Amino acid sequence: MLFRSADGVGNTWVAHLIDGGFSASFDIYAADINGDGEIDVIGAAQNADQVSWWGREDYLEVTSPNGGESWWVETEHAITWTTIVDDSVSLELYNGPDLSLTIAADIANDGEFTWTIPVDLPPGQDYTIRVFLTEDESAEDTSDGPFTILAEPNPDPVEFTVTPITTEVGADGGDITYSVSIINNTGNLFSGVTYWTMAILPNGNPFGPLYSQAFNLFPMQEIDVPLISQNVPAFAPTGQYFHVSDIGIYPAAYLTEQFQFTKLGVSSSLAHSESDWSVTGFDLPAVSQIALTEDQPLPTEFLVEDAYPNPFNPTTTINISLPVAADLSVVVYNITGQQVAELANGQFRAGSHKLTFDGSGMASGLYFVRTTISGEISQVQKVMLVR
What we know:
The protein is mainly β. It is built from no helices and 29 strands. Strands 6, 8, 9, 11, 12 and 13 form a 6-stranded mixed sheet that branches. Strands 15-21-20-17-18 form a 5-stranded mixed sheet, with no helix packed on it.
């Protein structure tokens, strides 16, 4: 007796058992289960009371969302699955054990469905998606872990806010003060961006830059600088000014914030000095202030250095050198192949880039860091998180 799977491969098999008396010996065969090129014998009996065999089981597996994702209402996302059958499928959304809604019913089994999350869907952190064969549900699967649906529409990729605090100085000069908030709402690393400030004088002419600092804006990072002091010297002309803050690759500003401040009178007795336009308070950890005109040599070759430290707890750093601008992707996977972090995804300028993998809240064990440069250069390295 010969058994083969419908597709001739036998991806998935299920056990069967027959009880009874047998008067003759026989063998039961299946398809090539272990991939060695030969038909596998998986059951046999001679004058026995039982015989077992294996037959193909319909197979379906949800691949996204599969736990840990955060999706906003009014945004589109791909629900994906793998299967070995062609029958139509249906998709359901669950909140914990409860069915929330049917996402799609009796659709083509293409392995992917684009879903726009309804604006009125309640927010929650315990959502899963079930995909199943519509006709008889002989194959079905649910997300391995819960994902989150957020109630507000997707925010701007980067939020930049400057809030004035003190906006008036006297004839003898003094400090205006303000706060800065920078929020990266994406999974992308913005490497080597610069924060700089200018003043628009009462006559309308720009003056500056007064201050500049380069920094890396990491995925989902929030930077709050509560008090920055900008000195306005005594010799500065009287009148209405604008203080301008920019973020970008100098001199190209991607985001701009400004506020008005006032200088009351002029003290002509003090000597003119540009150094009097000093700034204090904008100090980011582990990022040094640099001059806008600083000439830094570019790397001469593509290089991905080994993560250090390794083993690590809870962070490790990877240095990447790009001799020219390139698309850079750095993704971290656990031992089951599930993506757990994205350190970079986008266009990076030429230069040296430092990426940090933070394993806080993750299980101890082995992780794999895959680095791809311009879709051509690819490297995978192992890192060990040890508590």
